[in-house]
Design a protein that fits this description.
five-stranded antiparallel sheet, eight-stranded mixed sheet, Arc Repressor Mutant, subunit A, about 30% helix, D-Amino Acid Oxidase, Chain A, domain 2, about 475 residues, alpha+beta
């Protein structure tokens, strides 16, 4: 007997979205992830934008799934209780000569089904966003654009999938896949698994996974983007997501608020050979700082609290690869998922799950639970509610992270959930402990103690993220 009906490789936002949608069906499903947690690759380091859908070429997967995913996001955020805001976006141009570029995006957006698009003058744009550069001549305004917490979205999808029976298997890299005739044997670093169907959602490694079973080879290019994140004191500088006209390497440097009240600037775009190179560079960070100032005046870079880089899984033909491989029956790709992949995730998950369920002849489960309750944020409750919570659960009155006002109760909740945090980064992505001004400078030791206590392990084994990133030696 096969271990599973479906194995999904990769627990980023794409794999988690597919898992959550497959959980609607009577299928034994598992997600295999090489890292220690969900949301540990491309999904954790991106612009956190829900794109309106005007940039993608009509007829592509990117165009179809972007608009559908954007429309699904608000309801999904309510059902699964994660932060999302429809703040709108603007694409700026700085001369009359550039206006045809905006007009092309406008027509492309209309073809894709984006609602409410219009080109406005620079003065009209500055009425809406007073900090815009005086050089802005026109802007494409897209009211349906939004911002989301990429960690919150991915974790919510994974938790809801798990509650509906999906298994998550972490710290398991896939070494080899072979077609056995009745399905696939998936050989991992922690033993062999088998399934009738395999879904490839492996991010920058999706080409390696695909090429194990198919003679129709694909190539994924890791495209690095660097970012600068500023303190919440800077978060009100703009309310919209501010883009410049896109170029050959993507949508360019943006300036945007985050759903948590920070200000984010970036990314640049550098194609690499190394699928693990997420280092920031002085040159890259200086590049995005300077380019962002062309769009928005007075960006307070002195309020920077961190910089980071993420890798996008760029497919050389510049579109997603979705569907069953022609020469590998039962093997389904969700590969080349770069921007606007985060925006597309809800629609991509639904489409892929329907396709796999149809192939498997699987029926929908009558007891699927489509809602999930997010983490309690004690500091955001009104005084009466917070007082009641602390009386019932005193740990919610013990503040561990002073920058973000995160209590011991929230950290313990992050660890106890399924799938729960097993690393410091796992706690950070769930409840924001360590994401404030001091960047975990003061709260790390206390968080480590709680993690060791909850997991019943020695504190020397506590990691920042993957195995091998222990904090304490000796």
């Amino acid at each position: 007997m096969l271990d599973y009906d479906v194995i999904i490789i990769g627990a980023g936002v794409t794999g988690s979205a597919i898992a959550r949608e497959l959980a609607r069906y009577s299928l034994r499903t598992a997600v295999v992830e090489k890292e220690e947690d969900v949301c540990s690759g491309t999904s954790k380091a991106n612009s956190a934008i829900v794109h309106a859908g005007f940039d993608a070429v009509p007829g592509t997967w990117k165009a179809k799934l972007n608009v559908e995913g954007n429309r699904m996001m608000e309801r999904l955020s309510q059902d699964l209780d994660f932060p999302f805001k429809r703040n709108g976006s603007m694409v700026l141009c700085f001369s009359e000569e550039e206006k045809p570029g905006l007009e092309k995006l406008l027509e492309r957006g209309k073809t894709n089904g984006v609602e409410g698009l219009q080109i406005i003058t620079g003065d009209e744009a500055r009425e809406m966003e007073p900090s815009l550069s005086d050089e802005v001549v026109y802007a494409l305004h897209a009211p349906t654009g939004g911002i989301v917490c990429p960690f919150g979205l991915t974790i919510a999808l994974a938790e809801n999938a798990a509650e509906n029976g999906v298994e998550f298997l972490f710290n398991r890299s896939v070494d080899r896949i072979e077609n056995t005739g009745e399905g696939y044997a998936v050989h991992t670093s922690k033993g062999d698994l088998s399934a009738k169907y395999v879904v490839n959602a492996a991010g920058v490694y999706a080409d390696r996974i695909h090429n194990m079973v198919s003679e129709n080879k694909i190539k994924i290019i890791p495209r690095r983007g660097e970012y600068v994140l500023m303190d919440k004191e800077a978060g009100g500088l703009v309310s919209h997501t501010i883009f410049q006209l896109p170029g050959k390497l993507g949508k360019g440097v943006l300036v945007t608020p985050t759903v948590h009240g920070n200000l984010l600037v970036g990314p640049n775009a550098v194609d690499l050979d190394d699928k693990e190179n997420t280092a920031t560079t002085a040159e890259g960070l200086d590049e995005i700082r300077q380019k962002a100032l062309k769009s928005v005046k007075g960006i307070p870079y002195h309020l920077t609290i961190t910089s980071f880089a993420g890798l996008r899984a760029h497919e050389e033909n510049d579109d997603f690869i979705i569907g069953e491989a022609e020469d590998a029956e039962g093997f389904f790709d969700a590969a080349g998922i770069e921007s606007p992949g985060l925006s597309c995730a809800p629609a991509l998950g639904k489409y892929a799950a329907e396709m796999i369920a149809a192939k498997a002849g699987a029926d929908k489960k009558p007891d699927f639970k489509g809602t999930r309750k997010g983490f309690i944020r004690a500091a955001e409750l009104d005084p009466e509610e917070r007082g009641k919570l602390i009386r019932e659960k005193p740990e919610y009155g013990n503040i561990i992270c002073r920058c973000e006002n995160i209590s011991e109760g929230e950290i313990r909740d992050a660890i106890r959930r399924t799938p729960g945090a097993v690393s410091l980064d796992g706690i950070k992505r769930r409840v924001r402990q360590g994401m404030g001004r001091c960047q975990a400078g003061f709260c790390t030791p206390k968080a480590m103690n709680i993690l060791a206590e909850e997991l019943h392990v020695d504190i020397h084994t506590i990691c920042k993220n993957r195995e091998g990133s222990e904090f304490l030696k000796g």
